[in-house]
Amino acid sequence: MKKGIHPESYRPVAFKDMSNGDVFLSKSTCNTKETIEFEGETYPVVKLEISNTSHPFYTGKSNLIDTAGRVDKFMTRYGDRKKK
């Protein structure tokens, strides 16, 4: 890798998915004041709401969230009709 092309703050940072607790290590320039113990070393930590380990697209576990009952209302109205 070429010398001098990255900023001085480019360092290993641990990213923690808060929805499932997974942690992965990457390099970043993110500013953070918190640290975490990961694989025997102490790294700065950036907390994420969602990552590839918890996103439904990557996990294949998509959920249909129907809070207003729209699907049930549709099925009762149009679900039992047959093509003639």
Structure keywords:
single chain; 84 residues; alpha+beta; 2 helices; elongated
Write a structural description.
The chain has 84 residues and is α+β, with helices and mostly antiparallel strands. The chain has a domain of 55 residues. 15% of the residues lie in helices and 30% in strands. It is built from two helices and four strands; from the N terminus they run E-E-E-E-H-H. Strands 2-1-4-3 form a four-stranded mixed sheet, with no helix packed on it. The longest helix has 9 residues. The chain is elongated. The model has no long low-confidence stretch (mean pLDDT 79).
Helix content: 10-25%
Major beta-sheet overview: 4 strands, mixed
Mean pLDDT: 79
Radius of gyration: 22 Å
Oligomer classification = single chain
Which of globular, elongated, flat, extended, rod-shaped describes the shape? elongated
Structural class: alpha+beta
For the biggest β-sheet, the strand order reads: 2-1-4-3
Termini gap: 68 Å
In terms of DSSP E residues, the strand content is 25-35%
Structure annotation, total helices: 2
